[in-house]
């Protein structure tokens, strides 16, 4: 089965591309994969950050009010 790659509005047969073009496509695929991975990591880190902020707020409120608000 022929593999094709679409660049812009044109489709190209992968077998007809030069070694340099194939290498560039592989690098592009790796880069896109890494960007997706980093975006996932960013979302995870933002979630952790927000959790730490919430924990800090609860701690500060409980210390100020003299109440224990933890879930532990």
What does this structure look like?
This protein is mainly α and 72 residues long. The chain contains 1 helix and 2 strands. The protein has one helix at residues 19-65; strands at 4-7, 10-13. The longest helix is centred in the middle third of the chain and has 47 residues, at 19-65. The mean pLDDT is 90.
Fraction in beta strands: 5-15%
Q: What is the overall pLDDT average?
A: 90
Count of DSSP H/I helices: 1
- Give the low-pLDDT segments: none
Backbone structural class:
mainly alpha
In N-to-C order, the SSE pattern is: EEH
User: Strand order of the main beta sheet, please?
Assistant: 1-2
Q: Percent helix among the residues?
A: 55-70%
CA-to-CA gap between the ends? 58 Å
Q: Give the strand tally.
A: 2
Looking at the structure, what is the overall shape? Answer: rod-shaped
Radius of gyration: 25 Å
Main pleated sheet: 2 strands, antiparallel
Note the topology.
Blueprint: E1 4-7, E2 10-13, H1 19-65
Antiparallel strand pairs: 1-2
Q: In a nutshell, what does this entry contain?
A:
By secondary structure, this protein is mainly alpha-helical. The protein has one helix at about 20-65, and strands spanning about 5, 10-15. The termini are far apart.
Which characteristics define this entry?
single chain, 72 residues, mainly alpha, rod-shaped
């Amino acid at each position: 089965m022929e593999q094709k790659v679409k660049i812009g509005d044109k489709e190209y047969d992968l077998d007809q591309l030069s070694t340099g073009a194939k290498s560039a496509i592989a690098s592009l695929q790796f880069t896109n994969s890494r960007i997706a991975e980093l975006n996932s990591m960013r979302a995870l880190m933002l979630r952790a950050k927000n959790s730490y902020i919430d924990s800090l707020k609860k701690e500060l409120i409980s210390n100020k009010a003299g109440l224990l608000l933890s879930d532990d």
